Amino acid sequence: MSKAFTKESDAADQDDEDSPSLPAIPKGARNYMTPAGYARLRSEFMELLDVERPKIVEIVSWAAKNGDRSENGDYLYGKKRLREIDRRLRFLTKRLDIAEVVDPSAHHGSDQVFFGATVTYANAKGEERTITIKGIDESDSLAGEVSWVSPIARTLLKAREGDELQLVTPVGVETIEVIEVLYPAPGA
């Protein structure tokens, strides 16, 4: 059988499935994002679509003209990179289509926890921790940001300063107290 009629890889056809490392959005839920998070994802989408993809298409086209494609590294790598870019573009398109941009500064001055809040809470031992509740695609745990679907965020949402809450952890139930709730100032 000619190589022209064989698949390069079965994995290449699995493009529509999100990789397991990507966070899942609950079924039927919107993809809540801060304005900065939306702008970052939109910027990545436009960079891939307008800059990187045309560059790779040009390389693949040039490499295809050079003859034997089975041993042409530029062609093989280019096709692989093109599949990766297309997969990411599809993922970003899906996420941006269901995005709901929420400006946390709308709650400035409130003592109730909503999306975008920076919350300081203490556990029963008196250890304090500060987190910011952000969107699934923009949260960074190393920077103290958690997604709104995380267990701690779900426990804190709608609570007010001074409330004691029961946080379910893998180790057991832990009592936490909301110490402070902050939102960015409008226009900041």
Structure description:
A hairpin with a 2-residue loop joins strand 6 (164-169) and strand 7 (172-182). The termini are far apart. The longest helix has 30 residues, at 35-64. The protein is elongated and about 70 Å long. The chain has three helices and seven strands. It has a five-stranded mixed β-sheet with strand order 5-4-3-7-6. Helix 1 (35-64) runs antiparallel to helix 2 (73-97). By secondary structure, the chain is α/β, with parallel strands linked by helices. The chain has helices at residues 35-64, 73-97, 151-156, and strands at residues 31-33, 99-101, 118-123, 128-134, 145-147, 164-169, 172-182. The model is unreliable at 9-20 (pLDDT under 50).
Main pleated-sheet profile: 5 strands, mixed
Average pLDDT across residues?
86
General form: elongated
**Class from secondary-structure proportions:** alpha/beta
Low-confidence stretches: 9-20
Element order: H for helix, E for strand? EHHEEEEHEE
Major β-sheet strand ordering: 5-4-3-7-6
Number of helices: 3
The helicity comes to: 25-40%
What's the total number of strands?
7
Radius of gyration: 23 Å
Content of β-strand = 15-25%
- The rounded distance between the terminal residues' Cα atoms is 63 Å
